[in-house]
Every structure is written in structure tokens, then in C-alpha cells.
Specification:
Blueprint: H1 2-6, E1 14-15, H2 20-24, E2 32-36, H3 40-43, H4 55-71, E3 74-77, H5 80-90, E4 97-99, H6 112-116, E5 124-129, H7 138-150, E6 155-160, E7 173-176, H8 184-196, E8 199-202, H9 212-218, E9 222-226, E10 241-244, H10 250-262, H11 264-280, H12 284-308
Parallel strand pairs: 1-2, 2-3, 3-4, 5-6, 5-8, 6-7, 8-9, 9-10
């Protein structure tokens, strides 16, 4: 089907986000850029939905991905963690593998001046955003709320994108099951959540690079998360948040958050450096510039080879 759609038409390059099956089977001389956030090898027995597969199914998935990686001219991963897998697990040449962080998927980004004016709220507002309560560490976020309360800190937990298990309630936990970014009104609600939050808490159990990191940093919101997957390549301790050991629970999260919340000057420094992380690397303009440079080099090399021939 893809080959039929390309037939008789001229393209300088094909950009195929997350199109492994299509690229694996495509025969073309057109250069291909393949943006991805993870490899199958990393997902296998890491994400719940990619665990306990038949050996045959896993092998077929790897062969398909191997073919796509070799057909592509360049692989654009969202983290060094995933990029290393393409090189080490699939034997792809390092020069065609790139790690370029993705940006914030929001239409309205506050100005730098608005973020620099941010102050800690009267309550310690924790924002938890994710579509899978268990995998994103919702229980640990809930534990953190309870621990902060026990420490005498008035805190609030807002969850968005998922619902807790039945019976898991708290008077200071607000549950928003889902907000659609494609709906202008609901997208604005998401932006308000970031603007009101003091911390993004995401004790994720399995992840590549959550898009919510760039979104939170755009608003100067500090990220408190877990060391798993590609997380540590995006969040730098003392820069745009803190990456905690995978095994710790709510008590440790609460202690880190309490220490930051009680030290206003330190908190505000991190607000400013979190925004700087967004401006420097966690935005789509930075991604576009990096990809443009790859495209320019690739097309220049192609033209040079054609000239030689």
C-alpha cells in the first residue's frame, strides 16, 4: 500500500513516525527518517502489554524492527536510552542513530516572564498525569499525599488521565478521568493544571520519556520521578527535578518534596532552571532544528553522490 501511494510521485525524503511495519517492508530509494521513542527489545518484558509473549511472536517483532532500522537512513529516538538499544541490541551503525528529545504537546506555552514570576502555592499542589494508574505509579503518588499530610504539610493531589482503584479516595485528592488536548476548552484545562501545580509527581514503573516532562518544565513545574527507562536522561537532579531510586515509596517522595517546598529560594531556583531545560532542549523547535541539520547533511550527501555518478 505504501509503495503504491509513492509510485509516480517525487519526494526528497520520507518521515515516518513510529511506522516500523510499513518501513520494514518498503522498497524505495527515497531516504527515510524514522522517529521512535523505544525499541521492541526494550519493551519486551518491561511494559506489561509486551510481557509473556510467545517466543515466536517476540522473534517476529524483532525481525520486523531490524528490517525497518536497516531500511531507514536515520533513526530519531527520544532518548539516549533508546538510541543505545538500536546500536547495541540491533547492531545499527552509530552514525545513523540520534537521540533528540521531544517537545511539549501544548498549543499555549507561558512566557519566560510568567514562569519567572511563579511562587509556591499556599498548598503543596502535586500533579499526577498519566493514562495508567498502576504503570505510572499512582499508588506511590497517593502515598506521598498521605505522608506529606503526616509531616504537617497541607498538600493536594490532582490526578488527570486515569482513575484510582475503587475505594482509594481522599478529601484532598481530585480525580480528573480524562482531558482531550484536541478539544480547545479541555486543552486549556490541562494548561491550568500545570500553571497551578508546584510539582509533577510521576513515580513511573515503566517509561520511555514521558511527554509530560517537557510540558511541566514549560510551566516551571519541578518533576519528581523514578529512575527507570529513559527518564534519567531527561530529568537532571537539581536542574529540572529529581530522579529517585526505583524502589522507594511515598515516604521518600514526600521528604524530597517537603525539603524543596519549605526552602523557597531553592524551590524558585529550580523553577527557573526547569524552564531553562524546556527552552534549551525539551521543545519542538529544538527538535526541528536538530532534524533539519540531519536532513541537510543527508540530502547534501545524496546530491554529492549523484554528482559523482
Amino acid at each position: 500500500m505504501t509503495a503504491q501511494r509513492l509510485a509516480g510521485r517525487h519526494f526528497d525524503v520520507i518521515v515516518a513516525p513510529d511506522c516500523v511495519p510499513q518501513i520494514a517492508c518498503l522498497q524505495t530509494d527515497i531516504p527515510i527518517l524514522l522517529p521512535l521513542d523505544v525499541t521492541f527489545r526494550l519493551q519486551h518484558n518491561y511494559y506489561p502489554e509486551y510481557s509473556h509473549l510467545f517466543a515466536f511472536s517476540a522473534r517476529q517483532a524483532e525481525l520486523l524492527e531490524q528490517a525497518a532500522f536497516h531500511h531507514a537512513s536515520h533513526l530519531l529516538f527520544s532518548s539516549p536510552w533508546a538510541a543505545r538499544s538500536a546500536i547495541e541490541d540491533y547492531g545499527i551503525e552509530p552514525e545513523k542513530v540520534h537521540a533528540i528529545f521531544w517537545g511539549a504537546n501544548l498549543d499555549h506555552i507561558p512566557s519566560r516572564e510568567q514562569v519567572r514570576a511563579k511562587q509556591p502555592s499556599g498548598k503543596c499542589r502535586l500533579l499526577f498525569i498519566g493514562v495508567d494508574w498502576q504503570r505510572k505509579g499512582g499508588n506511590i503518588a497517593y502515598e506521598t499525599l498521605l505522608q506529606l499530610e503526616a509531616m504537617g504539610i497541607e498538600a493536594e493531589l490532582i490526578t488527570c488521565g486515569t482513575t484510582p482503584p475503587a475505594g482509594l479516595t481522599h478529601e484532598r485528592m481530585t480525580v480528573i478521568p480524562f482531558l482531550d488536548k484536541n478539544d480547545e476548552r479541555e486543552a486549556r484545562e490541562i494548561e491550568k493544571l500545570y500553571a497551578m501545580a508546584d510539582f509533577l509527581i510521576l513515580p513511573t514503573r515503566a517509561d520511555c520519556v514521558p511527554n509530560v516532562f517537557g510540558e511541566a518544565n514549560a510551566f516551571g513545574v519541578l518533576i519528581i520521578t523514578a529512575n527507570t527507562g529513559g527518564v534519567a536522561s531527561v530529568v537532571g537532579d537539581g536542574e529540572n527535578g529529581y530522579v529517585l531510586p526505583f524502589e522507594v515509596r511515598g515516604q521518600t517522595y514526600a521528604q524530597v518534596i517537603a525539603d524543596l517546598y519549605r526552602d523557597e529560594s531553592r524551590y524558585l531556583r529550580l523553577v527557573h532552571s526547569s524552564r531553562a531545560a524546556f527552552e534549551e532542549r525539551l521543545n519542538w523547535d529544538a527538535w526541528g532544528i536538530a532534524v533539519k541539520n540531519i536532513l541537510n547533511d543527508m540530502l547534501a550527501e545524496k546530491n554529492e553522490m549523484q554528482h559523482v555518478q
